[in-house]
């Protein structure tokens, strides 16, 4: 693969891959490492991919598998996998609320969602992959992706509503924050 | 198709409209056009989805990540690692053979992936201690114009911890950071103990106004960073 082609591939996808990695790893340092490792694997294996149009799916799939292989941590956060009973909360967490919060708070809310739902949700909102490609990436049927997306959005609204009500905001180590400084 | 099934499908309809030509979506969208209640629901969903997508797109990668990914591509007179069949084969073999944590770092046969990005991020946002007396045994030799870092560190790196040198955590491993002056110019050196390493580099890269050189010896990985350009780094690395 030429330098120019590799640079072009990086430029097209590294931002979205980093955001996906950040949603998985929940800290910038690990997200950087995951993103770099993905392109490293591309350089060693992905360059042989015959269908160039599959490069994007290959990169997201590889990043996700690398996360599962090396970066999955014991969950320090209390994940949300059930929407609250109070349905009014879900209605309150609308686009107005989303527009008022900053990206870090949104990531806090997303980080509180169980990984099973969080992964397709973030891939969906990155808009880089179709639901069919998301299904390939995480290795589940298309119907499962739709089901998880439907539920994930409810969970996101619940998490946002909880934040809006002054509920616990668990720290999310995002851009500009180092993990540990001693 | 009833409204419940249409909602199920439309939950996967991207807010930017990229799925408009998908047959499953076309049918559901048509249903939403016919049914005002479903149409109103879809409109609310799309507004919410667009707001979340827009907010997510506001998250920017750390400065230097792109350069770190491309490390090697701008190395003068050196073939980038992804174009070196021997290095790729070696790295692939080792990567398959062993995995995880520090071992995975070794598999790449050089500076661990992410270390340069960490250094760049720390350069931009870290709270550096500057020149302090307790670190003089390290900062002093680094300031000497005759010290060529590619010939070996002019101090005992294993004593950095005992000297209470500032450090960062990188996948559970300490990375020590030292500021020093050479010819009145400021440099930052990052030192990561790397057991069982082998000599590689230096690899130079430059982006976003920052330049880095990264290399390894038998026991450490190093990143030297500055805002002064690659030529300034080369003088420190090569001495003189």
From TrEMBL, chain A:
RNA polymerase sigma-70 region domain sequence ranges: 9-76
Keyword Transcription: yes
Name under which the protein is recorded: ECF RNA polymerase sigma factor SigR
UniProtKB keywords: Sigma factor, Transcription, Transcription regulation
Occurrences of domain RNA polymerase sigma factor 70 region 4 type (ranges): 106-153
Molecular function, one GO term: sigma factor activity
Family as reported in the entry's similarity comment: Belongs to the sigma-70 factor family. ECF subfamily.
GO biological process, one term: DNA-templated transcription initiation
Record organism: mine drainage metagenome
InterPro entries assigned: RNA_pol_sigma-70-like, RNA_pol_sigma-70_dom, RNA_pol_sigma70_r2, RNA_pol_sigma70_r4_t2, RNA_pol_sigma_r2, RNA_pol_sigma_r3/r4-like, WH-like_DNA-bd_sf
Gene3D superfamilies in the cross-refs: 1.10.1740.10, Winged helix-like DNA-binding domain superfamily/Winged helix DNA-binding domain (1.10.10.10)
Signal peptide positions (record): none
Presence of the UniProt keyword Transcription regulation in the record: yes
UniProtKB/TrEMBL annotation, chain B:
Name of the molecule in the record: Transmembrane transcriptional regulator (Anti-sigma factor)
Membrane-spanning parts: 86-105
Keywords: Membrane, Transmembrane, Transmembrane helix
């Amino acid at each position: 693969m030429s330098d120019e082609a590799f640079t072009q591939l990086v430029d097209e996808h590294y931002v979205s891959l980093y955001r996906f990695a950040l949603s998985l790893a929940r800290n910038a340092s690990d997200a950087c490492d995951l993103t770099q490792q993905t392109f490293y694997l591309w350089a060693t294996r992905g360059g042989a991919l015959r269908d160039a149009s599959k490069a994007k799916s290959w990169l997201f799939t590889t990043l996700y598998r690398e996360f599962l292989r090396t970066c999955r941590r014991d969950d320090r956060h209390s994940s949300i996998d059930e929407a609250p009973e109070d349905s009014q909360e879900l209605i309150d967490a609308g686009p107005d609320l989303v527009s008022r919060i900053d990206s870090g708070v949104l990531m806090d809310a997303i980080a509180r969602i169980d990984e099973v739902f969080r992964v397709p949700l973030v891939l969906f909102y990155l808009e880089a992959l179709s639901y069919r490609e998301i299904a390939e990436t995480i290795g589940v049927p298309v119907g499962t992706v739709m089901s998880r997306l439907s539920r994930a959005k409810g969970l996101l609204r619940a998490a946002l509503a909880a934040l809006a009500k002054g509920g616990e905001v668990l720290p999310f180590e995002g851009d500009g924050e180092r993990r540990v400084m001693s | 198709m009833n409204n419940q099934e249409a909602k199920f499908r439309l939950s996967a309809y991207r807010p930017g409209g990229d799925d408009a030509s998908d047959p499953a979506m076309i049918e559901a969208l048509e249903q939403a056009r016919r049914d005002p209640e479903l149409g109103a629901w879809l409109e609310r969903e799309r507004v919410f989805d667009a707001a979340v997508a827009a907010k997510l797109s506001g998250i920017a990668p750390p400065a230097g990540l792109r350069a770190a990914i491309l490390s090697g591509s701008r190395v003068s007179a050196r073939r980038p690692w992804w174009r070196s069949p021997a290095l790729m084969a070696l790295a692939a073999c080792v990567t398959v053979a062993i995995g995880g944590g520090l071992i995975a770092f070794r598999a790449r046969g050089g500076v661990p992936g992410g270390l340069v990005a960490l250094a760049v991020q720390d350069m931009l946002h870290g709270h550096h201690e500057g020149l302090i007396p307790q670190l003089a045994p390290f900062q002093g030799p680094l300031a000497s114009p005759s010290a060529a870092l590619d010939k070996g560190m002019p101090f005992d790196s294993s004593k950095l911890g005992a000297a209470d040198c500032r450090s960062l955590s990188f996948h559970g491993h300490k990375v020590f950071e030292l500021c020093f002056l050479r010819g009145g110019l400021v440099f930052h050196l990052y030192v990561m103990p790397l057991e069982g390493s082998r000599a590689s580099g230096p690899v130079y890269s430059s982006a976003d106004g920052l330049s880095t050189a990264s290399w390894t010896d038998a026991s450490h990985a190093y990143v030297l960073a500055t805002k002064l350009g690659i030529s300034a780094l080369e003088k420190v690395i090569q001495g003189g």
